[in-house]
Design goal:
The complex is a heterodimer of chains A (57) and B (466).
Chain A lengths: L13 H29 L15
Chain B lengths: L5 E2 L9 E6 L2 E7 L3 H9 L2 H7 L6 E4 L9 E7 L13 H20 L2 E3 L7 E4 L2 E4 L5 E3 L9 H18 L4 H6 L6 H7 L8 H16 L13 H16 L13 H5 L5 H14 L6 E5 L5 H7 L4 E6 L2 H13 L5 E5 L19 H4 L2 E6 L3 H7 L4 H9 L2 E8 L5 H7 L11 H9 L2 E8 L6 E7 L8
Classes of the chains: A mainly alpha (57), B alpha/beta (466).
Chain lengths: 57, 466
């Protein structure tokens, strides 16, 4: 990609923030997955009640 | 071949193409510089997938060089949007749905080797009642090494207003109108309460982002940042869960549940509904209706029953949010809700005041409904009746207006803190004002109230009905 083709300015610091945010979120996802795994050993996972839950409200 | 075309005034930012109008039809030109990304969208299966799900606007490809410009690659004719609306005219729920659609597209695009290169509410519109992404050229080939180029834009145009409304518990459409390109992060960070810093996603996407935008200058070479598909997915997922959890709870406003209360007045509401239904059914040529001061849209629903396109406006964003939820749940596809203060309708905005046309230039209807509204404007806002009539005459060929006398309980409520009602607010002067611009077609008192309904048709230049 050629930088001058970026027609919106991603903003000073915006890329770096994303790297930091992605690392922090990644750590959260890691621990959440562990928690979900442990929980799944003791409880049956609940059935997805409504597919539309993820649709726009 | 004539190449006379009008470039859309808001379509100048993206070198990949532009929107233009020719012979009354809207087209999008794809330029050579956007060709590779456009082909990636079409060839990857993303276009078919997104359009079949109703997320992305459908277009017809035309291999015609309609503009005659050297940069031409191809021409598209997208499905036209009947009524264009802007974020400052949307309720909280409408903006939130637009944000979620944008994030959903950004996430799903990755599967097709694409990413979204911009993320602004202007890229979404309601088309035939469904929220769709209308910018076909927003997709570009995905480079896994790079973070999301539209991240800051998303934070400023979506997250900022949604978070400010969530934390302040106030509808803040006016702030979006003041910052069409997004509320600067530094402003959002300074307006959010201190406790928002303890919510990790808000701390990252707004507070840290604002701080780093201040201190990092110039922007670092994006190629040097380490990013990956997993990180991108996590980032988008986090934004999605944050937006999903934002709420703007209804708080009691004067006009919320207006018709619930009006129902207590014996026979008034059923009589008014019956009259409106009867009169509208006698007007088969009326296909587009603008309902001004629609409250929760009771009468927009009646108007929409006849397969007409209805623009449903009210100044109370909570009322508009209610009707939006209601028409989504049913669903009713021919009502477009819009937050609008008639004493200060959306002005023209953007570069050279041309990018986002004013409400008045967009609102054209066969019939304008102004039910239980005139007293608000004349008594509440002191707008002279003749000026109001002139204003309404610019918006449609016919007018269905409700006269509410000055001694009506709702008028008295408006006049509670005023010394006296304006001398020019009475049946005779109101009627005289409207008859300057309209001719009376039908009039009838409404049972159970001292109110009246007037159906009028606009005079033409020679003074005869149009």
């Amino acid at each position: 990609m050629v930088n001058w083709l970026l027609y919106i300015d991603p903003g000073s610091g915006s890329y770096l923030v994303q790297v930091i945010a992605a690392v922090v979120i990644g750590i959260g996802v890691f621990f959440r997955n562990i928690r979900l795994y442990i929980r799944s050993l003791f409880f049956r996972p609940k059935k997805e009640k409504d597919e539309k839950k993820n649709e726009p409200s | 071949m004539s190449t006379g075309y009008q470039l859309h005034p808001a379509s100048y930012r993206d070198p990949a193409g532009f929107i233009f109008r020719k012979h009354g039809t809207i087209y999008r030109q794809v330029n050579q510089s956007g060709a590779a990304d456009y082909q990636a969208l079409m060839d990857s299966g993303a276009y078919d997938s997104f359009t079949s799900k109703g997320w992305l606007v459908k277009h017809t490809g035309l291999n015609e060089k309609l503009t005659g410009t050297g940069e031409w690659y191809t021409t598209l004719r997208p499905e036209p949007v009947a009524i264009t609306s802007y974020p400052w005219e949307w309720s909280f729920g409408m903006l939130k749905d637009s944000a979620l659609l944008t994030l959903k597209l950004a996430t799903e695009s990755l599967q097709y080797g694409l990413s979204l290169k911009d993320a602004t509410p202007f890229n979404t519109q309601w088309l035939n009642g469904r929220l769709v992404f209308i910018d076909t050229l927003s997709f570009e080939k995905y480079d896994e090494q790079l973070p999301w180029v539209a991240y800051r834009q998303f934070c400023e145009t979506y997250l900022s207003p949604l978070l400010l409304m969530h934390y302040s518990k106030q509808p803040l459409q006016g702030i979006m109108a003041a910052y069409p390109d997004g509320i600067p992060l530094a402003i959002t960070a300074s307006l959010l309460p201190f406790r928002s810093r303890f919510r990790i996603p808000v701390a990252l996407h707004i507070h840290l982002h604002a701080r780093m935008s201040r201190t990092q200058s110039p922007a670092r070479d994006p190629g040097k940042q380490r990013f990956s598909r997993t990180r991108m997915t996590n980032l988008l997922g986090n934004l999605q869960s944050l937006v999903q959890n934002l709420r703007l709870e209804e708080r009691p406003t004067t006009w919320l549940d207006y018709y619930g209360e009006a129902g207590d007045r014996a026979g008034y509401l059923p009589a008014k509904k019956k009259l409106v239904e009867e009169w509208l059914s006698g007007l088969p040529d009326v296909k587009a209706i603008t309902d001004l001061g629609a409250n929760e849209g009771e009468f927009s629903l009646i108007a929409a029953a006849g397969d007409r396109q209805v623009l449903c406006t009210d100044m109370d964003p909570f009322c508009i949010n209610r009707i939006y939820s209601r028409i989504n749940a049913t669903p009713i596809l021919n009502i477009q809700p819009m937050v609008l203060d008639l004493s200060n309708p959306s002005p023209a905005a953007g570069f050279s005041n041309e990018e986002y046309p004013s409400f008045i230039t967009r609102a054209r209807a066969d019939l304008v409904m102004a039910l239980a509204l005139v007293h608000h404007l004349c008594l509440g806002r002191n707008i002279p009746p003749d000026r109001l009539a002139a204003f309404l005459a610019t918006m449609g060929k016919r007018l269905l207006v409700e006269y509410v006398p000055a001694d009506d309980p709702k008028s008295l409520q408006l006049l509670e803190h005023k010394k006296d009602s304006p001398a020019n607010y009475n049946r005779e002067s109101l009627l005289a004002a409207f008859l300057l611009y309209f001719d009376m077609e039908k009039q009838s008192p409404i049972t159970g109230s001292g109110r009246e309904l007037w159906l009028m048709v606009k005079k033409t230049a020679n003074g005869k009905p149009s």
